[in-house]
Amino acid sequence: MLGENIIVNDFMFCLDHGDELCHRCFCDHRLTNNIRIEDDLGDLSEFIAFEIEDRHPINVYALGAVAAVHTEESYQCEKHKSIDCKTCFDWVDIVKKEAEATEEGGRWSLKGSPETGFFEQLD
Ligand SMILES: [Zn+2]
Ligand SMILES: [Zn+2]
């Protein structure tokens, strides 16, 4: 049975573990989550779309998400007590940082798609 999900600042995570990718809940929300920020990613969106399966999944509870006191449907951050906090849950920034680090390190690139030959081996 599929677990329930929560939405934090437009991104979906499993309710039980706060995971974007959860083997226990059999869910992987990265694709739908990526679509939400696609426009904001600019040049990186294509890169990420290709390597979606390798994006490091975000754990929203690790970022301090807690159920909002007044509206049970919403989640706020521990730090600012702000619902859908744009600072703590800045997905564009989080994904961009990882993508940039990965581009430099070449971790994603090395796993690139052999069918398309889109990515070159870096070493
Ligand atoms: Zn889960
Ligand atoms: Zn915050």
Any overview of this molecule?
By secondary structure, the chain is an alpha+beta fold. It has a domain at about 5-60 and about 85-110. The chain contains four helices and six strands, in the order ββββααββαα. The strands form three sheets. A two-stranded antiparallel sheet has the order 1-2. The termini are far apart. One zinc ion binds near residues 77 and 80. One zinc ion binds near residues 77, 82, 85 and 87.
What topology emerges from the helices and strands here?
Layout: E1 5-8, E2 11-14, E3 21-22, E4 27-28, H1 30-41, H2 44-50, E5 65-67, E6 75-77, H3 91-105, H4 107-110
Antiparallel strand pairs: 1-2, 3-4, 5-6
Helix pairs in contact: 1-2
- What number is the mean pLDDT? 80
Based on secondary structure, the structural category is alpha+beta
Task: Label the overall shape.
Answer: globular
* Total E-strand runs: 6
Sheet having the most strands: 2 strands, antiparallel
Helix content: 25-40%
Order of strands, main sheet, comes to: 1-2
Bound molecules: zinc ion
SSE topology string = EEEEHHEEHH
What descriptive keywords fit this protein?
123 residues, alpha+beta, two-stranded antiparallel ribbon, 4 helices, binds zinc ion
